[in-house]
Amino acid sequence: MKVGLSADQELLVGTTRKYLQDSVPSDVLRGLRNRPEGYESEYWTTGAELGWAALLVAEEHGGGSVSGEGLRDLALVAYEFGRQASPGPLLGTNIVAGALSRADGVAFESELEQLVSGTAVGAWAYAEPVPHGGLGEVAASAVESDGQWVLSGDKVAVEHAAQATYLLVTARTGDGLTQLLVPTDTPGVTITAQRTIDVSRRYARVALRDVRLPATALVGVAGAAAADVELQLQAALVIQTAEMVGAMDRAFELTLGWLADRYSFGRPLASYQALKHRVADQKLWLETSHALADAAAVAVQNGDPQAGELVSVAKSYLAEYGPELLQDCVQLHGGIGVTYEHDLHLYLRRVVIGSALLGTAREHRLRITTLLEARKGARKVEA
Amino acid sequence: MKVGLSADQELLVGTTRKYLQDSVPSDVLRGLRNRPEGYESEYWTTGAELGWAALLVAEEHGGGSVSGEGLRDLALVAYEFGRQASPGPLLGTNIVAGALSRADGVAFESELEQLVSGTAVGAWAYAEPVPHGGLGEVAASAVESDGQWVLSGDKVAVEHAAQATYLLVTARTGDGLTQLLVPTDTPGVTITAQRTIDVSRRYARVALRDVRLPATALVGVAGAAAADVELQLQAALVIQTAEMVGAMDRAFELTLGWLADRYSFGRPLASYQALKHRVADQKLWLETSHALADAAAVAVQNGDPQAGELVSVAKSYLAEYGPELLQDCVQLHGGIGVTYEHDLHLYLRRVVIGSALLGTAREHRLRITTLLEARKGARKVEA
Amino acid sequence: MSEIESVEDFRARARAWLAENVPRIGPDHRGRSFVRPDDEELAEVAEERRIQRLLFDGGFAGICFPKEYGGQGLAREYAEAFDQELAGYSFPERLQVPNMTPCATVILEFGTEEQKRTHLPKILRGEELWMQFLSEPGSGSDVAGAKLSATRDGDDWLLNGSKIWTTGAWWSDWGLCLARTNWDVPKHRGLTVFMVPIHQAGIEISRIEMLDGSNEFCQEYLTDVRVPDSDRIGGIDDGWTVGTRWLLHERSFSSSPYALHPTGSNAYGSAQGDPAGNLLTLLESAGRVDDPAAREDIGRAYALQIATSELDRRLHALILSGKGSDQLAAVGRLMHGVAGAQLATIAFELAGQSAIAGDVDDDVLGDLGMRYLLRQAGSIGGGTTEIARNVISERVLGMPRELALDRNVPYREVRTAPSGGSSGARR
Amino acid sequence: MSEIESVEDFRARARAWLAENVPRIGPDHRGRSFVRPDDEELAEVAEERRIQRLLFDGGFAGICFPKEYGGQGLAREYAEAFDQELAGYSFPERLQVPNMTPCATVILEFGTEEQKRTHLPKILRGEELWMQFLSEPGSGSDVAGAKLSATRDGDDWLLNGSKIWTTGAWWSDWGLCLARTNWDVPKHRGLTVFMVPIHQAGIEISRIEMLDGSNEFCQEYLTDVRVPDSDRIGGIDDGWTVGTRWLLHERSFSSSPYALHPTGSNAYGSAQGDPAGNLLTLLESAGRVDDPAAREDIGRAYALQIATSELDRRLHALILSGKGSDQLAAVGRLMHGVAGAQLATIAFELAGQSAIAGDVDDDVLGDLGMRYLLRQAGSIGGGTTEIARNVISERVLGMPRELALDRNVPYREVRTAPSGGSSGARR
């Protein structure tokens, strides 16, 4: 994915790729649709031993990354997940672990140890249902009362919530945002599996009804979590776009191979100019997606002030052209491309899911304009 | 354009086509860019003798059409205008004449005689500038005072206003709309030419500053003109879409011919599959545009209750695919397609103008949804 | 009825008869795209055969088929009137395409008198249900590249090979089969068409699972299937004469007078009800009645549906009047593919995250993700949109034909895979 | 300066020098697309030559050109740093493409030592301004189909024929000319490249009027133009070896280190300022700050611009690192064409009716209609996007080449028009 990787990064990528290929080849993957969890717990703990859940956690809190740039390493892992349409709570666990490490790694030492080792799964409870389903809308409320927090609201599309031990819930306190770490067995928490289009990835609705939590559940500063939430969103989008690019890459390879192998009217499909030109457009979309996903990963990793714009640029582009690329791959495959036995749909699902969760193309375009206005306003103040 | 025409209609079409070809071939047309009026007045009066300005006027008021379906005949004429990118105040004059005939052809007998004979030009002052530039927004005001009307406001994109004798102005009176016929030499009326992209068609801004008009200037019922204005809009869209289809048709023909004549790498361009498939898409857009423009003309002619939806369906489709078809014709022509000496840009301009005036694709899509809601609401009441 | 009944009289008679005899579509009616268990599928097929029989007995089956073969012998206007009256009623969806057209229309056009008298009345009574044995695993859009072979054996033929993408072969009766009878002539000159009973010892049916879990499509493996020469349609080695018309009927199914298309149904004849109503329901379910972008999408979707039906109407008029060639049907086929994909995309985008992670009981939005995944199906099945674009550019617009390396070469010498060997057509 | 200056030291020196010597772009600066009278055009060319000379005297001209030919002999990083510092300053826009690249880069790559020492310093001083004599009226994208002929006459060559789409030939000095020297060999094997002074008796320059009234492009008619053999670039009949590199330089102009691209400028090096600022100005001018559809368009336009620059950066890194072929430049060329058309469309749609009927003094919105009419220009000039798609599929992805009927055939026998005759290349 990246043009230049360090030897350590090559190792992380190589190990991850081999492990994914060996443990969940596409035949195994296809069978996971019948498993409510979508993955085997040993699969995930072994993955955690490769470092999958440690990358956003500071070394002093038990984490660490091979390059010292944990998010970029995580993007490499996510890219491999996309290439193989692999299962597992990669996004949620990392976002929750990263948030705990950044907020107070000492206070959350035990939770971090479980998450990093893969013995616990974290779920990031961020999105809400209609009519508050817009990107970044938060209607769930967190109220302090007698030294306790009382949490109420609904979250949807929570990745692997039903498999999680901990939920990181974003809620509203007055004008600001508050984040709370909620063990999934807390009274008042109801987790209901939702239906989705992926073979292995699971999503759930989380209902929170007067959930009472101790003061220690607070992650960061009460009523002032907006900046942290923005960082989580940026990191999550880096993971999501990297995974989408991986899936696009693989689908493109499959399609090129198919066009070369398949003959029609005595000629390989690959010799038809109308198809060649469409493949050229796909190549353009693919290279641009790579470029944007990489640029977003670098910007967020570096805390670039324009990182927020760049992740939305990347997401809005990929959410538009990723599904189009995959659908055109389907079209070029013909009927075989929509059968369950073929691999193509595994990547199609992954890219389509990425296009719609954590903000649609349209929502990110609107966000870009708002961010640009804020930046221009900021500049005017500086000048 | 239409699949089946009567002999009289064929005659109207044939006469109009021949007259346009003879009087304004493309070389003459190109020279019109330097004429402030955009056309010769004799050209227009001769055209009026062919019946161009009589089609929406009742026979008892000096008008008439060959088929008894004046708007459908007018659409045929407009189609020919599109095919030749012809000059002249076709849309404005017909809409104004039609409105006067419908409102009170006796009271407006003199004006109608001038318009039908081509000795006067009518301009339809409907659109307004930003911030009231949305389709159908009216901020100009008409107030009754001492038996007179006082008119104030601004209109833009008024076709051939600077060449017109009469303006039909839509204004607001309280909650409703009022229409007034305004001679262009009335004190308080200032007409300023606007710049546009057409070679021969002219648009102007009309400033109305306390324009005082006699009671007889009223067209229709004060404060209750909304239904009339809707009918005018529907008719104007029929004219506009018919003209766009004509221009699309001609550009498509030019492009097919070019591809057959031009050789590259020892083969005609027409033999390249990537280009063939794009031409096939163009054919799809073209046939669909024909189908929709025709259906809209029939529906408006017949007063079909869903005519409002249908004109907006036609306009939204043509405003999207018309310019795309033309731009793809340009691309297939290469550099020659954007030179002034080539004819292609004449059609490009006409289609692009049509796409943006009288509501953009987006505005008509929004209008469709609002009309559907109104219709479903109406149904619920019926049920 | 020696006098010809007017269209309006016919319409009135149809309206009354439908109201009295045919059940209306219930509010919980699910389109054919909905995945259902096999027993439900079979029950629905049986119900559709029953309604077909009702239509036959009522004098409304095969409106444009000749009377001598069980039809009504009426002009297209009567079929259109019936379609309008049929809106809102249950009707035999599965018995329309490819059963009525192209299968029955091909028999009507090329069958012998005996073949027509034998099969068409049964089809119109719902007793015989026909499917196409057309595509093959190795040939994709190049249907004339068929490798299923038929070799002469006395008065019979022996068929060997495989067909694929047969809709519902497991609940159908007969296959219209394109086979290769001569490998020593160029591709198009060695084909022959046969009528084959599907359920027999030599035919193994394998169902294909699609990505949404449905398995309506089948692949058939034929081993020494014996077909009498009397079940041949058209001349020996002259199957492409039949085939070109067959494909034309397939491309123009959406405006064919031989199949029912209740007004308001989609291209495949599936009942949709009023498009405006469905779209507004979608807008409300997504909670986006006040969102201008969503409102624009609804307007765009409605426009696309109207555009599709107006285009169909125009193409049909052009073809009927002789102002356009039959091949214009490819323009309609392209539109149905393109517009179908666009409509699925609009619905998916309107639903947003609800299409991806939807509550189990959300029937309006929750299914849109899967429908989006399958959005290209309408641009693949029944001849791809790529083939339609070839037909439009070459046969409608007269642009030069694509280079075909299989012309004027004995078919056995044509390369059909990179290795030069078979690409798995037979096993 | 025996020690190598660091990029950051170079940057600091450039920054200080620019501030002291070069005028900043004024608020009323108009891009090259704006139509201006000839005298203004000539004055601007003269001013650009003056600034080029300033750069040369200041030690900043030709940063990546070798020192022995008047350049600075520095690596690409220095050129990038200079581009960043150059943002906001006037710079010699017209002297970049095709003058610095591909013309000067082709001379640098294929010229003799004497040719390089003669011309490159003059180019870098702004004394020689080069244009491409490449396209011909009859050949379109097929530049190797050149018919302008060069015939040997003693030590000289005589050139006859016509070239077209030469930018500003009327205010330029030299043409790099692709000519046919052999009609008896296949197309690519009979070409030779020459250097030709533009203003001489045998060359008649005709200016082409574009639809917006601009006439920067020219067509040249060459009649017995005498060129000494010493002004030949590369071998006789070996012009396509030069030509392939020439076209590659042309396709990759947007990331070439031999031309200036001030940061924030568009693909053609035209100063745009901050894209975010321009977009927000557009949003306000259109009066649509609160319109969600317009806000979405602004976000889309910004994303496209960032996508284009990030893609350029990635392609450049892939090519430099050897992980991708040089031919990847075609991906960038395709993006610039596609994105340019999309951006023009977005701006046009934002302006709505103001782009069609605009007040005469509305400079923000009033020009957008004309820009939209010309939106395909960026997908045509400098090699069409169709050619880019061919290159991507065939040379980047290794898909089979298009059938070319002009391969392995003497060029005089190649059909270039329906009649079999010339398609008007000469007159």
SSE layout and pairings?
The complex is a heterotetramer, with 2 copies of chain A (383 residues) and 2 copies of chain C (427 residues).
Chain A (H helix, E strand, L loop, with lengths): L6 H17 L2 H6 L9 H9 L20 H15 L5 H15 L4 H9 L4 E4 L15 E5 L2 E12 L6 E8 L2 E8 L5 E5 L9 E12 L3 E2 L6 H36 L1 E2 L2 E2 L4 H29 L5 H27 L10 H13 L4 H22 L1
Parallel strand pairs in A: 1-4
Antiparallel strand pairs in A: 2-3, 3-7, 4-5, 5-8, 6-7, 9-10
Helix pairs in contact in A: 1-4, 4-7, 4-8, 5-6, 5-7, 7-8, 7-9, 7-10, 8-9, 9-10, 9-11
Chain C lengths: L6 H15 L16 H21 L17 H11 L9 H15 L2 H12 L5 E4 L15 E5 L2 E12 L6 E7 L10 E7 L5 E5 L9 E12 L3 E2 L5 H13 L23 H11 L6 H30 L7 H23 L16 H6 L3 H4 L4 H12 L31
Parallel strand pairs in C: 1-4
Antiparallel strand pairs in C: 2-3, 3-7, 4-5, 5-8, 6-7
Helix pairs in contact in C: 1-3, 4-5, 4-6, 7-8, 8-9, 9-12
Average predicted confidence as pLDDT of chain A: 95
CATH architecture of the domain at 264-396 in chain C: Up-down Bundle
Low-confidence stretches of chain A: none
Q: What level of helicity do the residues of chain C show? A: 40-55%
Described by the principal axes of the CA atoms, the overall outline of chain A is globular
Q: How much strand content do the residues of chain C show? A: 5-15%
Largest Cβ-defined interface: B-D, 49 and 59 residues
**What is the CATH-assigned architecture of the largest domain in chain A?**
Up-down Bundle
Helix content of chain A: 40-55%
CATH topology of the domain at 264-396 in chain C: the name is: Butyryl-CoA Dehydrogenase, subunit A, domain 3
Tell me the name of the CATH class of the domain at 264-396 in chain C. Answer: Mainly Alpha
Q: Widest sheet of chain C: strand order? A: 1-4-5-8
Number of strands of chain A: 10
Count of DSSP helices of chain C?
Answer: 12
Give me the oligomer status: heterotetramer
In CATH, what is the class of the largest domain in chain A? Mainly Alpha
Element-by-element helix/strand order of chain A: HHHHHHEEEEEEEEHEEHHHH
Q: How many independent structural domains of chain A? A: 3
